Amino acid sequence: METTPNHKQRKFKELTPKELAILRTNSKLSDKEIKMCYEGFIEMCPTGQLDQKTFTSICKTFDPDTDEQICGDGTVDFSEYLFATAVTNFSGDLEQRLEFIFDFWDISEDGQLDQNELGRLISAMYDRARIKDRHGDNDPHKRAKEIIKKLDINHDKKISKEEFIQGCQRDEVIAKLLAPAL
Q1: Which of the two residues, 40 and 1, has the higher pLDDT score?
Q2: What ranges do the domains of the chain cover?
Q3: Bridge-partner residues for 49, per DSSP?
Q4: Which of 57, 59, 144, 173 would disulfide-bridge 119, Cβ 3.0–4.6 Å?
Q5: Taking the mean position of all CA atoms in its chain, how far away is CA 3?
Q6: What are the angstrom distances between the C-alpha of 127 and each of 28, 93, 110?
Q7: How confident is the model at residue 157 (pLDDT cuts 50, 70, 90)?
Q8: Which has more pLDDT, 92 or 165?
Q9: What is the tens place of the pLDDT at every residue in 117-142?
Q10: Average pLDDT over residues 57-71
């Protein structure tokens, strides 16, 4: 079985072109400014991960009402931070948000989400929604398997961007979670 690199297992040396493009689009910063911020992040967190206390402290400078339990597993890596920031600040309609989310979590860049990629996406959404129960039906990889089974039109055990967007648009909970704030 082919595995894709896990965001949390990646060695942090420099930003990938994909991460740089996401940050450029959503922050309106120049590549130079983004790289300076990233270098500061790595200097502050040489492991590439923020612990819960540090992340909460940073978030509270922007939003004083930040929940102390915002980190699902106790840490936030740069990709998770990037994802949370981009989804929160992304101003497009639901379809544009879903395209962004799909592209961000398509780690293998093959235009499809496999069970591992979708499981990591679900985990990140749980973190953002502060859902701690990840057992039984709430297990992210179990949910990913069920979602793929339901949405996979061509039965290749992966979902294409089109399958992902159509399935999410039909899901009232996801549509509500990702709807642009008015």
Answers
A1: 40
A2: 16-89, 93-181
A3: 77
A4: 144
A5: 18
A6: 25, 22, 25
A7: very high
A8: 165
A9: 888 888 877 776 777 888 888 898 99
A10: 60
What CA–CA distance (Å, rounded) separates 80 from 8?
A: 9
Q: What is the CATH number of domain 93-181?
A: 1.10.238.10
Q: Per-residue pLDDT tens for 71-90?
A: 556 677 766 666 666 666 66
Task: Output the DSSP codes for 26-45.
Answer: HH---HHHHHHHHHHHHHH-
DSSP string, the chain: ------GGGS--SS--HHHHHHHHHHH---HHHHHHHHHHHHHH-TTSEEEHHHHHHHHHHH-TT--TT--SSSEEEHHHHHHHHHHHH--S-HHHHHHHHHHHH-TT-SSEE-HHHHHHHHHHHHHHHT----SGGG-HHHHHHHHHHHH-TT-SSSEEHHHHHHHHHH-HHHHHHHSPP-
Stretch 8-32: mean pLDDT = 72
For residues 152 and 163, the answer to whether their CB atoms sit within 8 Å is yes
Listed in sequence order, the residues at least 6 apart from 124 whose beta carbon sits closer than 8 Å to its beta carbon are 80, 83, 84, 105
CA 77/CA 38 separation, integer angstroms: 12
Which residue type is seen at 11?
A: K
